[in-house]
């Protein structure tokens, strides 16, 4: 929706040739297609269901589970992938195979299938996650050989100052103090699993060893990430906490889209705080790095197990403080064997095994 707001403000610069979405809001999907003159849309609903909301018969509908991959394969300048979860991997690979550039906001594409995605070349991916967009921009200031480390910032979620994580309700975990996001990403932010996923993403995007990727708590979420160079200088990218800046940067690259987001108001006073992450309270980052260093499909297992655990928490079937335990047990049981990732089917197999085991662990701990 924010991407289309940028398009609407820059109709001289952009034309939308396809949109894909799930089945949760077909009315909005078809309204967007009509408003922007989109010739083809994709949906996991049926064509008949989608056409009930069509304003005209001029729009073509691709339906089914592969709809997003088909839309991503359309000939175009750039594909923006904002799908949530590892189901976004297939459309990413489809777009790259078709020769398209991918503006990637689906971090799971790299977490679950990083080797498959990056085989097409780093120059085919423009990151849209605010942290990775920030790193991408800051790295332009020096040579890759001059980078000492990168530092991703984390808001810390709603529980950064809460010592006891027991008894947390779904409503409390969904009350993010800075960002308005979907439920899964919001819970991942509360556990800092999200930052673990982003560290894995940064490893693949920038070809950096995990020893050179760190994270710090920054509650204001204005500084999106930083790059430290070998001479001791640190460059940071700062902008208000919304996604329009990173989206606009990716869509317009190598040019910047004018007024994509509001700038920081320098006529007002600001206080920006940074602090180390309590790794005892938030152990997800260490586990993410461990999976990343194991390589292969370990990160796909990590992500799939987390999706199961988060879903169980959202359904009030798992305590918040038990999310990490489910992920850790699944990883420890599966990550030592069968890690080869040669294609999408290998990723699917590993995710299926991880989800099945995570569900089994859930039932045993109930």
Description of the molecule:
There is one protein chain. The protein is α/β, with parallel strands linked by helices and 366 residues long. The protein has 3 domains: 2-127, NAD(P)-binding Rossmann-like Domain (Rossmann fold), CATH 3.40.50; 130-242 and 264-277, no CATH class; 295-366, RNA polymerase sigma factor, region 2, helix turn helix motif (Rna Polymerase Sigma Factor, Chain: A, Orthogonal Bundle), CATH 1.10.1740. It is built from 15 helices and 10 strands. The protein has a 4-stranded mixed beta sheet with strand order 8-7-9-10, with helices on one face. It has a 3-stranded parallel beta sheet with strand order 1-2-3. Strand 2, helix 3 and strand 3 (60-63) form a beta-alpha-beta unit. It is globular. The protein starts with a helix and ends with a helix. The model has no long low-confidence stretch (mean pLDDT 95).
Rounded to the nearest angstrom, the distance between the terminal CA atoms is 39 Å
Mean pLDDT: 95
Report strand order across the widest sheet: 8-7-9-10
Task: Tell me the β content.
Answer: 5-15%
As an assembly, this protein is: single chain
Instruction: Please bin the fraction of helical residues.
Output: 40-55%
Total beta strands: 10
- Give the count of helical stretches: 15
Q: How big is the Rg?
A: 20 Å
Number of domains: 3
Major beta sheet summary: 4 strands, mixed
Order of helices and strands: HEHEHEHEHEHEHEHHHEEEHHHHH
- pLDDT under 50 segments (min length 5)? none
The global form is: globular
Structural class: alpha/beta
């Amino acid at each position: 929706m924010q991407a289309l707001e940028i398009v609407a403000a820059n109709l001289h610069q952009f034309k939308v040739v396809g949109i894909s979405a799930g089945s949760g809001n077909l009315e909005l999907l078809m309204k967007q297609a009509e408003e922007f003159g989109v010739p083809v849309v994709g949906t996991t609903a049926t064509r008949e269901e989608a056409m009930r909301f069509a304003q005209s018969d001029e729009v073509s509908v691709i339906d089914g589970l592969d709809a997003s991959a088909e839309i991503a394969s359309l000939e175009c300048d750039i594909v923006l992938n904002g799908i949530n979860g590892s189901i976004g991997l297939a459309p990413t690979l489809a777009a790259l195979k078709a020769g398209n550039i991918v503006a990637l906001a689906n971090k799971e594409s790299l977490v679950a299938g990083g080797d498959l995605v990056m085989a097409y070349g780093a120059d085919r991916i423009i990151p849209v996650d605010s942290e990775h967009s920030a790193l991408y921009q800051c790295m332009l200031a020096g040579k890759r050989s001059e980078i000492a480390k990168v530092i991703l910032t984390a808001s810390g979620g709603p529980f950064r100052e809460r010592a006891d994580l027991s008894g947390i309700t779904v409503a409390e975990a969904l009350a993010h103090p800075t960002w308005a996001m979907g439920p899964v990403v919001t819970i991942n932010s509360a556990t800092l699993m999200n930052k673990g996923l982003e560290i894995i993403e940064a490893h693949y995007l920038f070809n950096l060893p995990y020893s050179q990727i760190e994270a710090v708590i920054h509650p204001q979420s204005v500084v999106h990430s930083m790059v430290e160079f070998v001479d001791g200088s640190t460059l940071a990218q700062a902008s208000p906490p919304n996604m329009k800046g990173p989206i606009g940067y990716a869509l317009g690259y190598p040019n910047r889209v004018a007024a994509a987001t509001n700038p920081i108001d320098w006529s007002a006073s600001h206080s920006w705080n940074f602090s180390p992450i309590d790794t005892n309270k938030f152990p997800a980052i260490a586990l993410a790095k461990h999976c990343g260093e194991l390589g292969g499909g370990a990160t796909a297992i990590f992500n799939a197990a987390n999706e199961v655990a988060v879903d169980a928490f959202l359904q009030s079937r798992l305590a918040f403080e038990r999310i990490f335990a489910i992920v850790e047990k699944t990883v420890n049981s599966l990550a030592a064997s069968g890690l080869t990732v040669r294609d999408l089917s290998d990723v699917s197999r590993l995710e299926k095994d991880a989800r099945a085991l995570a569900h089994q662990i859930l039932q045993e701990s109930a």
